[in-house]
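Can anyone check this?
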Amino acid sequence: MSARPELVRPDDAAIATAARCALRAIAALLQALGDGEHTLSLVADRTDDVMIPARADVSFGGAPARLTVLDSDEFQALCTLLTFALEGSTVRRALLVATTATEPQPRACGWTVRHGWLHPMDTADMRRAVTPCSGVNAVHRQVYTAPVLTQHADNDEESPRA
């Protein structure tokens, strides 16, 4: 018997609903961030005590809407992890940080996954999340309050945690 808890796979309907929700969340997030080069970083704490990271670099332009993904496999992995985080049965906690390339310093904001959606992180928590450890050569990011992302569902059953 394993000391690590077992993952119980959610049913196909729950995964499909969460996948649609994840796509809406990514679209809302990119519209809120606006035009520019963005790095999306997601880390999920699964119920079996495994931490899973995902990262994708994207370029977004809003008029007309265009999305360029640097690595489609990385973007797909991030969307898949976000799907399971939003569905919630196999993920305890998840955090998504968006870093936008700006001069003189990149800007970052973040969201936590709660109740099947992305909710803005407190600025102080966000600052702690992106502060590099001492002795680590990392880019310092200017932290700002993440915008609230409006959740649009087709109906009440559309929410993965309804």
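Reply from J.R.: I decoded it. Confidence is low (pLDDT under 50) at residues 156-160.
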